[in-house]
Write a structure and sequence with these properties.
The structure holds two protein chains of two kinds.
Chain A: H1 3-16, H2 24-58, H3 70-81, H4 93-123, H5 139-159, H6 167-210
Chain B: H1 4-19, H2 28-61, H3 67-93, H4 106-137, H5 143-158, H6 161-166, H7 175-185, H8 187-211
Classes of the chains: A mainly alpha, B mainly alpha.
Chain lengths: ~220, ~220
């Protein structure tokens, strides 16, 4: 018997045992999951970021001049570890403040460009789509463009809470809710399908790779 | 000192990185920032790991409820770290260096046969909970809930061959698949776009509040 597949199957069944009820086998697998995940990501970040980006950046293996500004990031990182101390844990707020501030500054502009301006630009297109060769209207794409324009405008009206949703404004917001419900339904459907494909993957592992019952 | 200094750091960092978009001389600031963030992120991950170890060891020494499981957590953590460190440094010592994630390393074995089964089974198990949640969410109580139901039904039905096989008795046209594609391309795009624009505006206002020092929760304020 392949010991690797056997171990993977035991861990898989251990997690699935929760479907019956909470039990010691599940909790043991869960504890192993926490430990292994923490260890995995610590190693990945250590070698991919600290070793490759910081250490090889400051001391390049080819002997060229190092980028000593990277030390600033390392100092901030070390200050973050002070969080473990109850007496001087407040120092950890400094690197946190830097990260929060820099992220706020960057996101304020990048989100404005990518999520607001680009999305608005992609919506403000011709509502009537014409075939370049024949000059006739392509009805499927025209209806689609209309649906997108109406959906975006009504959806944004729904998110505008500074005015009471009454009259024409309220009716538009109502249409916005319909579009949002379709979006949530589609997203939910997609999530269900992705979880189902993971489940099929695990079942396939158990019955094909481990037990060899299916070809 | 404990709150003012972090607030000043926040404002300066925020202003520098926001302004760097408009002043080409500061253009390198964005790349520099991403390098620093990567490094700080790594320390943050190790901070989490040290904290997990501290909490688990406290649980074991004080014999709190479930302390036996904490032993498993610490042992599996130490094993994964030891294997990763050994494979990482021995790989670096080789010429040319070999990645610790190369197929055949012990770390890769742990990833394939311990980490992956646990992770994917955890998420696969959500299929059962999502199924029960969808039963509640997809009940057609009113028009809005019916729209949710119809969109979810066609998106799910359009992604599996069964539904289009069943309607072959009536037509060869892949109705489910085509309608699912139409929903995803047009009404779903419209809704997603409205949400994305809303999120962008929300992030902009939150960012401004942080940079101006109105929002202080990250430095322990209200």
């Amino acid at each position: 018997m392949d010991i690797s597949n056997f171990l993977a199957a035991v861990l898989t069944l251990g997690i699935f045992s929760f479907l019956y009820k909470d039990n010691p086998v599940y909790r043991a697998c869960e504890a192993i999951f926490v430990g292994v995940s923490a260890g995995y990501w610590a190693i990945v970040f250590f070698f991919d970021n600290l070793q490759k980006k910081f250490w090889e950046g400051v001391f390049p293996p080819d002997g060229s001049a190092g980028d000593h500004l990277l030390w600033f990031g390392a100092i901030l990182g070390v200050l973050m570890l002070f969080r473990l101390s109850s007496k001087i844990g407040w120092i950890a707020r400094w690197p946190l403040a830097f990260i929060v501030g820099a992220t706020a500054g960057l996101y304020m502009i990048t989100y404005f460009v990518s999520n607001a301006m680009n999305q608005v630009a992609d919506t403000m297109l011709s509502l009537i789509v014409v075939n370049d060769v024949t000059g006739s209207i392509i009805w499927t794409q025209t209806i689609g463009a209309l649906v997108v324009a109406v959906g975006v405008i009504s959806g944004l009206v729904y998110f505008f809470f500074s005015k009471e949703h009454k009259g024409v404004f309220g009716a538009t917001a109502k249409v916005g809710i319909w579009f949002l419900m379709i979006t949530f339904g589609a997203s939910f459907g997609y999530t269900v399908m992705s979880r189902m494909s993971l489940l099929i993957g695990r079942m396939s592992f158990l019955f094909r790779d481990w037990l060899g019952l299916i070809g | 000192m404990r709150r003012e200094v972090p607030l000043i750091i926040t404002s300066i960092a925020g202003l520098v990185f926001a302004i760097s978009f408009f002043i080409p001389l500061l253009g390198d600031a964005q790349n520099r920032f991403s390098d620093w963030v990567s490094i700080v992120q790594s320390f943050a991950v190790w901070l989490g790991l040290l904290n997990l170890t501290k909490v688990s060891l406290e649980k074991i020494t004080r014999k709190r409820e479930g302390w036996q499981y904490a032993i498993l957590t610490v042992v599996s953590l130490v094993i994964m770290l030891a294997i990763g460190m050994f494979d990482g440094f021995s790989g670096l010592a080789q010429d040319p260096p070999v990645s610790y994630r190369e197929p055949g390393t012990n770390f890769d074995w742990m990833f394939r046969y311990v980490y992956t089964p646990l992770t994917s089974t955890m998420f696969a198990m959500l299929a059962f909970f999502v199924a029960s949640a969808s039963y509640r969410a997809f009940r057609a109580r009113n028009f809005e809930a019916t729209l949710l139901l119809v969109a979810g039904f066609f998106v799910m039905g359009g992604r599996v061959p069964l539904f289009d096989l069943l309607i072959r008795w009536f037509t060869d046209y892949p109705l489910f698949n085509q309608f699912a594609d139409w929903i995803m391309t047009y009404p779903n795009t419209a809704g997603q776009r409205a949400i994305m624009i809303g999120i962008a505006l929300g992030i902009m206002s939150s960012s401004l509040r942080i940079i101006l020092g109105i929002e202080r929760s990250h430095v322990g304020g209200q």
